[in-house]
Amino acid sequence: MPTDSAPNKLPEEALIAFLDGIRAELSSPSDPVMLNQVRSFFRKQIPLHLRSYAAALLILRAAGISGSQSGKANPKAKPMDKTQNANPVCRQEARLRRSKEIALKREEAARKQDDPTGGKGEAKPKQSSSPTIPRGRPEGMVPLFVSMGKRQRLRPQELRALIAEKTGMPQEELGRVHLFDNYSFIDVPEANAEKIVIACEGLTLKNRPLEIKPAKKKNEGSKDSEV
Fold first, then answer.
1. How far apart, in whole angstroms, are the C-alpha atoms of residue 172 and residue 195?
2. CB-based contacts of 91: which residues, under 8 Å, 6+ apart?
Protein backbone atom coordinates (compact mmCIF):
# COMPACT_ATOMS: atom_id res chain seq x y z
CA MET A 1 0.00 0.00 0.00
CA PRO A 2 1.51 3.38 -0.95
CA THR A 3 2.38 5.61 2.03
CA ASP A 4 3.85 9.10 2.47
CA SER A 5 6.71 9.82 4.83
CA ALA A 6 5.13 13.17 5.75
CA PRO A 7 1.71 14.72 5.28
CA ASN A 8 1.38 16.73 2.09
CA LYS A 9 -0.62 19.90 1.79
CA LEU A 10 -3.05 19.56 -1.11
CA PRO A 11 -5.04 22.33 -2.81
CA GLU A 12 -8.35 21.13 -1.42
CA GLU A 13 -10.48 23.77 -3.11
CA ALA A 14 -9.07 22.92 -6.53
CA LEU A 15 -9.55 19.18 -5.94
CA ILE A 16 -13.14 19.69 -4.74
CA ALA A 17 -13.95 21.75 -7.83
CA PHE A 18 -12.27 19.13 -10.03
CA LEU A 19 -14.24 16.27 -8.44
CA ASP A 20 -17.49 18.25 -8.66
CA GLY A 21 -16.88 18.55 -12.40
CA ILE A 22 -16.29 14.80 -12.70
CA ARG A 23 -19.51 14.06 -10.78
CA ALA A 24 -21.44 16.37 -13.05
CA GLU A 25 -20.07 14.63 -16.14
CA LEU A 26 -20.84 11.19 -14.70
CA SER A 27 -24.48 12.17 -14.17
CA SER A 28 -24.84 12.69 -17.91
CA PRO A 29 -21.80 11.37 -19.83
CA SER A 30 -21.43 12.45 -23.42
CA ASP A 31 -20.16 9.01 -24.50
CA PRO A 32 -21.35 6.30 -22.06
CA VAL A 33 -20.08 3.55 -24.35
CA MET A 34 -16.49 4.80 -24.20
CA LEU A 35 -16.83 5.43 -20.46
CA ASN A 36 -17.86 1.81 -19.88
CA GLN A 37 -15.00 0.57 -22.07
CA VAL A 38 -12.44 2.55 -20.05
CA ARG A 39 -14.05 1.37 -16.79
CA SER A 40 -13.86 -2.27 -17.90
CA PHE A 41 -10.22 -1.90 -18.97
CA PHE A 42 -9.37 -0.18 -15.67
CA ARG A 43 -10.91 -3.03 -13.64
CA LYS A 44 -8.96 -5.63 -15.63
CA GLN A 45 -5.59 -3.88 -15.26
CA ILE A 46 -5.78 -2.58 -11.67
CA PRO A 47 -6.29 -5.01 -8.73
CA LEU A 48 -9.23 -4.31 -6.45
CA HIS A 49 -7.10 -3.30 -3.44
CA LEU A 50 -5.20 -0.71 -5.54
CA ARG A 51 -8.10 0.84 -7.46
CA SER A 52 -8.78 3.66 -5.01
CA TYR A 53 -5.08 4.59 -4.98
CA ALA A 54 -4.94 4.42 -8.78
CA ALA A 55 -7.98 6.67 -8.98
CA ALA A 56 -6.36 9.13 -6.56
CA LEU A 57 -3.16 9.16 -8.61
CA LEU A 58 -5.10 9.76 -11.81
CA ILE A 59 -6.93 12.66 -10.16
CA LEU A 60 -3.61 14.21 -9.03
CA ARG A 61 -2.17 13.95 -12.52
CA ALA A 62 -5.33 15.23 -14.21
CA ALA A 63 -5.39 18.16 -11.79
CA GLY A 64 -1.76 19.01 -12.61
CA ILE A 65 -0.37 17.89 -9.26
CA SER A 66 2.71 15.65 -9.07
CA GLY A 67 2.13 12.11 -7.86
CA SER A 68 5.56 11.88 -6.19
CA GLN A 69 6.06 11.77 -2.41
CA SER A 70 7.30 15.34 -2.38
CA GLY A 71 3.74 16.55 -2.86
CA LYS A 72 4.94 19.54 -4.87
CA ALA A 73 3.14 20.72 -7.94
CA ASN A 74 4.56 19.54 -11.23
CA PRO A 75 6.17 22.62 -12.84
CA LYS A 76 5.62 21.15 -16.31
CA ALA A 77 1.91 20.58 -15.76
CA LYS A 78 -0.44 23.00 -17.46
CA PRO A 79 -3.05 24.87 -15.38
CA MET A 80 -6.45 23.22 -15.09
CA ASP A 81 -9.00 24.31 -17.64
CA LYS A 82 -12.69 23.63 -17.11
CA THR A 83 -13.17 22.98 -20.83
CA GLN A 84 -10.14 20.73 -21.32
CA ASN A 85 -8.30 18.28 -19.02
CA ALA A 86 -6.68 14.83 -19.06
CA ASN A 87 -9.98 12.99 -18.70
CA PRO A 88 -10.49 10.98 -21.94
CA VAL A 89 -14.25 11.47 -21.72
CA CYS A 90 -13.75 15.24 -21.63
CA ARG A 91 -11.43 15.11 -24.62
CA GLN A 92 -13.98 13.06 -26.56
CA GLU A 93 -16.72 15.50 -25.60
CA ALA A 94 -14.58 18.45 -26.74
CA ARG A 95 -13.94 16.78 -30.10
CA LEU A 96 -17.65 16.09 -30.59
CA ARG A 97 -18.48 19.69 -29.67
CA ARG A 98 -15.95 21.04 -32.20
CA SER A 99 -17.30 18.71 -34.91
CA LYS A 100 -20.87 19.91 -34.26
CA GLU A 101 -19.77 23.56 -34.37
CA ILE A 102 -17.98 23.02 -37.71
CA ALA A 103 -21.03 21.22 -39.15
CA LEU A 104 -23.36 24.04 -38.01
CA LYS A 105 -21.09 26.68 -39.58
CA ARG A 106 -21.04 24.78 -42.87
CA GLU A 107 -24.84 24.44 -42.87
CA GLU A 108 -25.23 28.15 -42.14
CA ALA A 109 -22.83 29.06 -44.96
CA ALA A 110 -24.72 26.78 -47.36
CA ARG A 111 -28.06 28.37 -46.39
CA LYS A 112 -26.68 31.86 -46.96
CA GLN A 113 -25.33 30.83 -50.34
CA ASP A 114 -28.69 29.39 -51.41
CA ASP A 115 -30.72 32.30 -49.96
CA PRO A 116 -30.92 35.19 -52.43
CA THR A 117 -32.40 37.45 -49.72
CA GLY A 118 -29.03 37.53 -47.92
CA GLY A 119 -30.47 36.03 -44.73
CA LYS A 120 -33.02 38.82 -44.19
CA GLY A 121 -35.76 36.32 -43.55
CA GLU A 122 -37.86 37.22 -46.59
CA ALA A 123 -39.83 34.32 -48.00
CA LYS A 124 -38.59 32.90 -51.29
CA PRO A 125 -41.11 31.91 -53.95
CA LYS A 126 -41.58 28.15 -54.11
CA GLN A 127 -39.85 26.84 -57.17
CA SER A 128 -42.07 23.77 -57.42
CA SER A 129 -45.25 25.87 -57.72
CA SER A 130 -44.03 28.71 -59.95
CA PRO A 131 -40.83 27.99 -61.89
CA THR A 132 -39.40 31.02 -63.64
CA ILE A 133 -38.26 30.46 -67.21
CA PRO A 134 -34.79 31.97 -67.75
CA ARG A 135 -34.54 34.74 -70.32
CA GLY A 136 -31.93 35.56 -72.95
CA ARG A 137 -31.94 32.34 -75.01
CA PRO A 138 -30.66 32.36 -78.62
CA GLU A 139 -33.07 33.12 -81.44
CA GLY A 140 -35.01 30.10 -82.66
CA MET A 141 -34.70 28.28 -79.31
CA VAL A 142 -37.54 27.57 -76.89
CA PRO A 143 -37.44 26.23 -73.31
CA LEU A 144 -38.69 22.80 -72.25
CA PHE A 145 -39.58 22.05 -68.65
CA VAL A 146 -37.68 19.15 -67.01
CA SER A 147 -39.02 17.63 -63.78
CA MET A 148 -35.60 17.09 -62.15
CA GLY A 149 -32.99 19.51 -60.82
CA LYS A 150 -30.03 19.94 -58.50
CA ARG A 151 -31.52 17.98 -55.61
CA GLN A 152 -32.01 14.98 -57.90
CA ARG A 153 -28.37 15.43 -59.05
CA LEU A 154 -29.32 16.07 -62.66
CA ARG A 155 -26.29 16.85 -64.81
CA PRO A 156 -26.69 18.96 -68.00
CA GLN A 157 -24.50 16.66 -70.10
CA GLU A 158 -26.46 13.66 -68.88
CA LEU A 159 -29.76 15.28 -69.89
CA ARG A 160 -28.47 16.27 -73.35
CA ALA A 161 -27.13 12.76 -73.95
CA LEU A 162 -30.45 11.19 -72.97
CA ILE A 163 -32.48 13.47 -75.25
CA ALA A 164 -30.05 12.91 -78.13
CA GLU A 165 -30.34 9.15 -77.65
CA LYS A 166 -34.16 9.21 -77.71
CA THR A 167 -34.52 11.63 -80.64
CA GLY A 168 -31.44 10.94 -82.74
CA MET A 169 -30.52 14.62 -82.62
CA PRO A 170 -26.88 15.73 -82.27
CA GLN A 171 -26.17 16.98 -78.75
CA GLU A 172 -24.67 20.15 -80.25
CA GLU A 173 -28.14 21.24 -81.38
CA LEU A 174 -29.42 21.25 -77.79
CA GLY A 175 -28.96 24.48 -75.89
CA ARG A 176 -28.19 25.47 -72.35
CA VAL A 177 -29.62 23.64 -69.31
CA HIS A 178 -30.84 25.95 -66.53
CA LEU A 179 -30.71 24.00 -63.24
CA PHE A 180 -32.88 24.82 -60.22
CA ASP A 181 -33.47 22.87 -57.00
CA ASN A 182 -36.30 20.56 -58.08
CA TYR A 183 -36.68 21.26 -61.81
CA SER A 184 -34.78 22.54 -64.84
CA PHE A 185 -35.23 24.09 -68.28
CA ILE A 186 -33.39 23.12 -71.44
CA ASP A 187 -33.26 25.30 -74.55
CA VAL A 188 -34.04 23.35 -77.72
CA PRO A 189 -34.63 24.30 -81.38
CA GLU A 190 -38.24 25.40 -81.73
CA ALA A 191 -38.70 23.17 -84.80
CA ASN A 192 -37.74 20.08 -82.77
CA ALA A 193 -39.49 20.90 -79.47
CA GLU A 194 -42.61 18.81 -80.12
CA LYS A 195 -40.50 15.91 -81.41
CA ILE A 196 -38.43 15.92 -78.20
CA VAL A 197 -41.50 15.98 -75.95
CA ILE A 198 -43.07 13.01 -77.77
CA ALA A 199 -39.83 10.99 -77.86
CA CYS A 200 -39.18 11.50 -74.14
CA GLU A 201 -42.67 10.57 -72.98
CA GLY A 202 -42.56 7.97 -70.17
CA LEU A 203 -38.82 8.47 -69.71
CA THR A 204 -36.99 7.53 -66.48
CA LEU A 205 -33.62 8.69 -65.16
CA LYS A 206 -31.87 7.48 -61.99
CA ASN A 207 -34.89 5.23 -61.37
CA ARG A 208 -37.15 8.32 -61.30
CA PRO A 209 -39.86 9.35 -63.75
CA LEU A 210 -38.53 12.17 -65.93
CA GLU A 211 -41.10 14.51 -67.48
CA ILE A 212 -40.15 16.83 -70.33
CA LYS A 213 -42.82 19.18 -71.64
CA PRO A 214 -43.29 22.70 -73.02
CA ALA A 215 -42.69 25.47 -70.51
CA LYS A 216 -46.00 27.30 -70.33
CA LYS A 217 -46.75 30.79 -69.09
CA LYS A 218 -49.19 31.50 -66.28
CA ASN A 219 -52.06 32.33 -68.57
CA GLU A 220 -51.71 28.97 -70.26
CA GLY A 221 -52.87 27.12 -67.15
CA SER A 222 -50.03 24.86 -66.05
CA LYS A 223 -48.64 25.38 -62.57
CA ASP A 224 -45.87 22.84 -63.00
CA SER A 225 -44.12 24.83 -65.69
CA GLU A 226 -45.46 28.36 -65.46
CA VAL A 227 -43.34 31.51 -65.60
1. 16
2. 84
